[in-house]
Specification:
The protein has 915 residues and is α/β, with parallel strands linked by helices. It has 28 helices and 17 strands. 58% of the residues lie in helices and 10% in strands. The protein has a nine-stranded mixed beta sheet with strand order 3-4-5-2-1-6-7-10-11, sandwiched between helices. Strands 14-13-12-15-16-17 form a six-stranded parallel beta sheet, sandwiched between helices.
Length: 915
């Protein structure tokens, strides 16, 4: 009943939602009261609700109101009837009323259908509710059967048994598990990161060990070759004897076999004769038969004698063979012992530089820690730089023993002696590959290794930067000693670390100063660089002084260690540390290290004594210039190429030209070299394919690999590739580099630039150029430094540009030629000393190796690169010959090191003559 009432109410609402208009004469119209209509409109707009007792009551009330409203309408309708009792309606109005009634009936039918559907739905819901009621009744009956619990206890039990509470508890447990898993994963992630770092370090160490192993293998092969050459004649003679002995043994063996056969036959024959003689005696045969038997006996006796003679000869031959074998083994053992001795001597001579550097650092550590005397330390150092085999044997035999036993073993060998080599110490702010910013780092390692190969004891002193590449340092350890040094009126301690880099012994100074001078995450560019490096210079000299070393040459580099020269002569020479001579090399006169005069006092220098025009006062203003001080106070002053040495005596000296002219007798330019072990296309591990001047196929393969890596076009394999690797600073001619990119594209070539700029607007400019050419398959700009990629660019490029405004030396043009990339350079500084124009007829043909231009403008550069492209396209055979000639040029440090060796020795000789 309630469901039917609800359905009727919804039908009425649907009908009243669209009341059909009934126009009548005059003002009369069939309508519902306003309040009822609005209410029904609101009712029709609401969604259907479930039938409940309260809803049924409201529906009945609504229907009663509608009936009352309808009766009111009937009363109002009667007012419009005429006197005959009929409504005053027109026919048209009746027709419209009929149509509207039909529409209302249609709406009523639709409402009925909807009401039936809702009724079915309500019935289904009722059945579902009934099922739930039944379930609840069952649970209620079960609950009644249980003991009565207190209301409070029942609520707690219901809450604890609630599915929501159980689900919440399960989620809490899962959350805790997830937290534990996250902690575990974080721990594993940290372990993985540490493992990756360890793997990286191990990979670096493995590469170094591979290099050492290759070196030892080459030396072992050479030793074997020398041994074979040395014993070739003895080898041939003894093998001839062995062959003769083998023939003699074979002959003797054959004779023994024949003799054995004869002997067997003789024994058989003798038995037969004896049998025959017995039978004859038994049967009384004639005397002829006895004669025949006697004859046989004589024959047997003759055979026996012959057998005895043969047996004697066989034994003689065997004895001779045995004697020869003994003699052969004795001689062979002597040869083996002599060979082993030579091998040991060669092994001692061929031990890697890393080994002897480690021995040298060990001795110096003992000396600083006061474990051995200065005298013993000096004697052991001499043995180390002479590579005395006794040190090697003592070190290897004492491995695994305590340090005390090793010290005692070394002290027993500390015998007086002299050394023809020099003790050279480089003090610098950089060294490749541990602390590299520019070319200075390559000079320190390259020159140091070349001098070491010439038999000199070479040591390096560096700051211990927090950002240096520790993975390139072998056997890094801190000494059990603190070196005190003066700074700003106080004594500060310095930790001393030792290790080997590229086979060279290196000392790292870690200041215990509150300013944390070398814990800045960068090498240069700090506001207090003047203080940082003046502190380091003083600490380095203090280390040498306290070690008691008799150093021959102290070689300092650039303004960062230019303090060494005045400190040595004004402070330490007065303390008795005066055995050395100072060599100062300025790698770039653009950077001179100027500061207010009072800043010199930080490291203990006398400001009044040095702030003079003839000493350290700058030539242009009243500041102190430490490069000028190094020029004045050093015994030797060098720069990095002859042409640059000439240029800096004029406007290229940046204000120091007059000082250089005054001290011109001790000033010389020596062209730098390159490390030909690192830069070697026949063994470069960064290349896709190694190659040499005699086999250029690998260069083409590397060109194809670089194109694939950088997504350059490979349509034309012979398309020339121009390379440029540089810092984008004004000195390097950035306007010409920019022009070269567009000019190469115009000439139909490909261009690859690798490098970045510390100057923000230059970096932004080249980023814009890179963005402009990002969709061009012939131009690539990589605005960062990538060591591995640099090797590939050198190997892949056909031409290499260095359009510098000034260039003290330059190394990239030498490396490019080493890899068969023809240089296009501006004639300045070291470029002028290493690249000679291919079309310059005033230069010998054998020296012409590239293309040069003089004026630093686009026209001059265009002429050089256009000539290079013409040779490349039109004269390929000439171009290949040029590439091969460039690759064979010796740019190693050997020649440069010989020049340094010569000026070192002349300075050392003058020192000994005056002492």
């Amino acid at each position: 009943m309630a469901c039917s009432a609800a359905a009727g109410a919804e039908a009425t609402a649907l009908l009243l939602r669209h009341p059909a208009p009934c126009p009548i004469a005059g003002r009369g119209r069939l309508s519902l009261p306003r309040r009822t209509r609005h209410r029904n409109l609101r009712t029709g707009a609401q969604p259907p609700k479930k039938s409940t007792p309260s809803a049924n009551h409201r529906n009945r009330v609504s229907i009663q109101r509608d009936v009352a409203a309808a009766s009111n309408d009937d009363e109002r309708q009667k007012k419009f009837e005429d006197d005959s009792g009929l409504p005053n309606l027109h026919l048209q109005d009746l027709v419209e009323m009929i149509h509207n009634t039909e529409k209302n009936i249609l709406l009523l039918n639709q409402a009925r259908l909807q009401a039936l559907e809702r009724s079915d739905k309500i019935l289904r819901e009722k059945e579902a509710l009934q099922r739930k009621v039944n379930i609840l009744e069952m649970k209620l009956s079960e609950t009644d059967a249980q003991p009565k619990l207190s209301n409070e206890g029942r609520r707690d039990a219901e809450i604890s048994d609630s599915p929501l509470v159980l689900e919440f508890d399960a989620l809490k447990e899962e959350n805790m598990t997830l937290k534990d898993d996250i902690k575990f994963l974080k721990t594993k992630l940290v372990e993985i990161t540490e493992t990756e770092e360890s793997l990286f370090k191990l990979e670096k160490e493995r590469a170094l060990l591979d290099a050492s192993l290759r070196e030892l293998e080459c030396e072992f092969i050479a030793a074997q070759s020398d041994m074979l050459k040395l014993g070739l004649l003895q080898h041939d003679a003894w093998w001839e004897k062995v062959e003769n002995l083998e023939e003699l043994l074979e002959s003797t063996a054959n004779q023994v076999e024949q003799a054995a056969t004869v002997l067997d036959f003789n024994h058989d024959f003798q038995d037969k004769v004896e049998k025959l003689e017995a039978s004859l005696g038994a049967e009384n045969i004639s005397e002829f038969c006895f004669y025949f038997v006697d004859l046989l006996k004589q024959r047997i006796k003759s055979v026996a004698e012959r057998f005895e003679a043969c047996n004697h000869e066989m034994h003689s031959q065997i004895e001779l063979y045995e004697h020869s074998i003994v003699k052969f083994h004795d001689t062979l053992n002597k040869i083996i012992k002599a060979s082993e001795k030579r091998s040991l001597e060669h092994y001692a001579e061929g031990m890697p530089s890393e080994f002897w550097s480690r021995i040298s650092l060990l001795i110096d550590g003992w000396s600083l820690e006061k474990k051995i005397s200065y005298m013993d330390a000096n004697m052991l150092r001499e043995m180390a730089w002479k590579r005395d085999n006794r040190l090697r044997e003592a070190y290897l035999s004492c491995r695994g023993m305590e340090e005390r036993e090793l010290i005692e073993s070394f002290q027993k060998m500390a015998l007086p002696g002299t050394s023809s080599g020099l003790h050279i110490v480089h003090i610098a702010a950089e060294m490749a590959p541990v602390a590299k910013v520019g070319g200075l780092a390559d000079v320190i390692s390259g020159l140091g290794k070349a001098l070491q190969k010439k038999g000199h004891l070479v040591e390096i002193i560096l700051p211990k930067y927090d950002c240096m590449q520790h993975n390139h340092i072998n056997n890094l350890k801190v000494l059990d000693v603190v070196v005190q040094s003066y700074f700003e009126g106080n004594q500060f301690g310095n930790k001393i670390w030792t290790g080997t880099v590229e086979g060279l012994p290196v000392y790292f100074i870690e200041p215990q100063h509150p300013a944390k001078f070398f814990w800045r995450a960068q090498y240069y560019g700090e506001h207090d660089d003047f203080k940082r490096f003046s502190y380091f210079s003083r600490a380095a000299l203090e280390l040498l002084h306290q070690s008691g070393k008799k150093v021959d040459i102290i070689h300092c580099h650039d303004w960062q260690t230019a303090f060494i020269a005045p400190l040595y002569w004004d402070v330490y020479a007065n303390l008795g540390f005066n055995s050395a001579r100072i060599c100062f090399t300025c790698h770039n006169f653009e950077y001179q290290g100027t500061a207010p005069p009072q800043d010199l006092a930080y490291c203990g220098l006398d400001v009044e004594r040095l702030d003079r025009p003839d000493r350290m006062r700058d030539n242009s203003h009243g500041r102190i210039n430490v490069v000028k001080g190094a020029i004045v106070y050093s015994n030797i002053v060098t720069t990095v190429s002859p042409t640059y040495a000439h240029e800096v005596r004029s406007e290229g000296g940046r204000g120091l030209q007059d000082t250089l002219k005054v001290h011109s007798k001790k000033f010389v330019g020596i062209l730098n070299g390159i490390d030909t072990d690192t830069w070697n296309p026949s063994s470069d591990r960064f290349l896709k394919v190694q190659y040499s001047a005699n086999d250029l196929h690998g260069k083409s393969a590397n060109k194809a690999a670089l194109r694939k890596q950088l997504k350059l076009s490979s349509t034309y394999a012979s398309q020339p590739l121009v390379g440029c690797i540089t810092r984008l600073v004004p000195q390097k001619g950035v306007h010409l580099i920019r022009h070269a990119i567009y000019k190469t594209a115009e000439l139909g070539g490909q261009f690859v630039l690798l490098g970045s700029s510390p100057v923000p607007h230059i970096q932004r400019e080249f980023e814009g150029i890179a963005d402009h050419f990002k969709n061009n398959s012939n131009i690539r700009l990589i605005l960062k430094y990538d060591d591995a990629l640099s090797h590939m660019i050198f190997a892949a490029s056909d031409m290499f540009i260095v359009p510098s405004m000034f260039e003290p030396c330059g190394l990239t043009q030498m490396i490019a030629m080493r890899y068969g990339s023809v240089p296009i350079v501006r004639k300045t500084g070291g470029l002028n000393d290493s690249v000679f124009d291919f079309d310059d007829e005033t230069i010998p043909v054998e020296l012409r190796n590239g293309f040069t231009f003089v004026k630093a403008d686009e026209q001059g550069f265009n002429g050089a690169i256009e000539r290079a492209f013409n040779y490349y396209h039109r004269k390929p055979e000439v171009w290949i010959q040029l590439v091969q000639k460039d690759m064979k040029i010796d740019f190693s440090w050997d020649s440069s090191a010989s020049q340094y060796e010569d000026i070192y020795q002349r300075a050392a000789v003058r020192t000994r003559a005056t002492s």
